[in-house]
Amino acid sequence: MVFDSYTYVLFLCLILPAYYWLPSLAGKRALLLVGSLYFYGAWNPPFTLLLLFCSLVAWVSAELIDRSTAPQQRRLWLVLGIGLNLGLLVFYKYGMFLWGNARALGEATHWYQLGVAPRITLPVGISFFTFQAMSYTFDVFLKRHGRARSFRDFLLYISFFPQLVAGPIVRFHEFSEQMYTPKPFRLPLAVAGLQLIILGLFQKVVIADGICAEIVDIVYDQMTTPSTLAAWGGTIAFAVQIYCDFAGYSTTAIGTALLFGYQLPLNFNAPYGAVGFSDFWRRWHISLSTWLRDYLFIPLGGSRGSQWETIRNLMITMVLGGLWHGAAWTFVIWGAMHGMLLSAERLLGRRSKEGATGMVGHLLAVITFLAICLTWVPFRARSFDSLRQLLTAMAGFSHGTPLAMKHVAMAIALGAILFVVHRLRVSGLSSRSWSPPAWAAGLVYGGMLYLIFTAASSNRNFIYFQF
Amino acid sequence: MDALRPIHRRYAITFCLTCLAGLLACTATHEWLMRRAGREQTLVDDEALWATIRMEVPQLSGNDILLLGASRMQTDLNEAALQELLPDRRVLNLAISGKGSSLPVLQDIVDRTSFAGILIIDETVTTLEAGNDQQSFVDSFHRDFTFDRRVNRTIETWLQEQLVCLGFGQSSIRLWLTLLSRGRLPDPVYTVTDADRFTQSFFARIRPELLAEIRRDRLAGQVPPTEEENSVATAVARWKAALEAFRSRGGRAIFVCMPVGNERWILNNSNGLAESRWNQIMDALQVPALNCNTSAEAFPSFETPDASHVDANDTDRFTRELVARLTPFF
Predict the structure, then answer these.
(1) CA–CA distance, A268 with A287 (Å, rounded to integer)
(2) Confidence (pTM)
(3) pLDDT of A284 above 90
């Protein structure tokens, strides 16, 4: 089930009154669990079993870790628990990619022959729920928190439908306490949730799908050699599209969770207003970047060693982070580009310039934004050829197909608006105390709802569903 | 997260009421603008709508008809005329606009249904020889068309049948961007698709200069097939197994090459290969076939205003002509 569907509205209309009608917390949790499993199964029912298996692996391994006293035994259960869940992720997400590469290697070296890769359907949200499950096993091993009270509650943590298929990646301790606090219906909280849902869907349906997708598709899918302006226009449009798509999903998820009395962590915090790349990664997909920091970068040694060891750890983390986004070499390049930018920033001693004020700060933010846009090229490009052509065009060495001026103007205007809005929020210039009157806010959100309702674009899944 | 600021109950109630009022007012304005300009309801023809028709195939009897092909099969036939001419037969339209060869759909019908009725397949020489684009619709049907999608598409279909502003090409983004930038309503959508996926093209609704541009663009891309040694064998090899399997269980397949208009056909067939190769393939496949572009009687009189499709005002006449010619093969 997807957020931007009529069935989701129907689903909410059925489950929400029932949720608040139930008097006991245990009943509410049970209903949420059933609803969450239905939500996931609505897409592809058999994969609900995979979700259950993944949860069971994490649950059992954490139980065994917690009950074991010998360090070696604890480590064994950890390796088994993480290995099984990681194995699932590798099989479903990277199986075809690895097979394809092994096949190409065999053909190139003539050492062996492999047939065509078997077709593996990627279960929606597998990267998100396996990461949540693994974080739980790790945290129990590291004694950061205790075990879940029951498998049922743990399953709710893994499968909680607002964040199940595209995050935010929630840690157990962020969720567990909320499961046991009373959840009476509060209209103001529900309205706040509703506002976030409308805001998120507006970003996704109207801006990402309705406006940006068309421009991006023209440049990235239809043009063989775009002109310089077309390449930049298409890339800036993609920067806006992917932000609005993913942040839109997260905002809708946070809003939906709020309807049920749960608070999910912030996943995006004005990333395009960042000054520097480490600042960007503190603002973009926060739940993933902190996951990678806590469970990959720090265990690798983090920044405790020499400068070069830190850079090595950064590169490993970012390349694997890139690969997390998709099973293709272009994602590896995207991760490596970010690793290099972060390393260069560290080498130049310009870590986190978010304190930079005035024109210098804004100028550095512009440079950061444009560099981030450049890194989106491998992320979106369909092939290495397309990547090379786009980068060549963006460097100014192309006299290829131009993009209609209305599209260029739209892309640049949207990019500029998003940048300015994010800058205002990062630099604290946007007024947080101003609050519009209820009727004005209502009309604005009503207008947004109308645009969502009538945007009528073709069916586009959330970009992050594929991850 | 500004929305998380504490708000009062009265604020929340006022917000909800004005939000609803805003939604209704904007939607009503949009709908009024569209209806005043003479626009009518038309469905968004997507994979899910196709899947709703595909889902009905197992219910067909050996007397019923399935239409396969691309846009011409979807737009040139008149559903009311078909019902009048063939009152005892159900006709389902599984043609997919803009997706070339219908071989993947034929393969799917053969492999995953027991349908043994009549298939009318619209193909050109080019689509007989290559193309697999329709596979994405088939995959989507088997992989994604769950109960949830079915319910969602049913709601969408119902809403699109009620409201003009939810129809294909009537989006609010298009409306307001055009109104703001050009000071006029967007060009009307000239095709009307119904829930059975039959589409009618009303070319009189297009501005003449725009129609001329569409026609010019379409004609500009037309080239005749090139001389290739194995092209007939390739096409026959592609289709033969699926057709034989279908016929072996009692099904009847008829191939049709729908009219593209004289000017375009002259370009397509400037070296004579479009006609001769089509005939060779049909002979090799041993199927009843009708090429509307070369048929001496009746069909050449159907001009296609956009150099591809029959106008809605002619579909009734065209359907009657076509059915009269195809009925002996049923």
Answers:
(1) 9
(2) 0.86
(3) yes
Q: Are B53 and B92 in contact (CB under 8 A)?
A: yes
Compute the distance between CA of residue B278 and CA of residue A321 in angstroms, rounded to an integer.
53
- How far is B306 from B89, CA to CA, in rounded Å? 31
Catalytic residue among A145, A173, A325, A362: A325
Most B CBs within 10 Å, among A7, A194, A209, to test the B interface: A7
| Residue B293 parent element (H or E) | none
Number of alpha carbons in the 13 Å side-chain half-sphere of residue A251: 27
Helix or strand holding residue B236 (H, E): helix B231-248
pLDDT in tens, A377-408: 999 988 888 888 888 888 877 778 888 888 88
CA atoms within 13 A on the CB side of B224: 17
User: What is the tens place of the pLDDT at every residue in A204-224?
Assistant: 999 999 889 989 998 888 777
User: What residues does each domain of chain A span?
Assistant: 6-103+119-185, 189-276+352-461
Cα A6 to Cα A1: distance, rounded to the nearest angstrom = 10
> Ramachandran region of residue B41, left (φ > 0), alpha (ψ -120 to 50) or beta?
beta
Has residue B109 got a pLDDT over 90? yes
Q: Is A254 on the interface with B (CB under 8 A)?
A: yes
- In this structure, are strands B91-93 and B65-68 parallel, antiparallel, or unpaired? parallel
Q: Would you state the structure tokens that stand for residue A294, as one six-digit string? A: 């806590």
Cα separation, B163 vs B159, whole angstroms:
6
pLDDT of residue B60: 93
User: What is the pLDDT, as a whole number, of residue B3?
Assistant: 44
Chain A residues within 8 A of B9 when measuring between CB atoms? 187-188
Residue tagged 């103001």 (tokens): A188
Average pLDDT (A278-285) is: 92
The 10 Å Cβ neighbour count of residue B50 is 25
| Of the candidate ranges A349-363, A438-452, B304-318, the one whose mean pLDDT is the lowest | A349-363
Residue B120 three-state SS: strand
Structure tokens at A229: 């302006």
**DSSP secondary structure code for residue A118 in this structure:** P
CB within 8 Å of chain B, chain A residues 42-101: 42-45
ipTM above 0.90, yes or no: no
Among A255, A258, A242, smallest CA distance to A204 is for A242
Q: Residue length, chain B?
A: 330
Decide: A105 and A137 in contact? Cβ < 8 Å. Answer: no
Q: Give chain B's largest Cα–Cα span.
A: 79
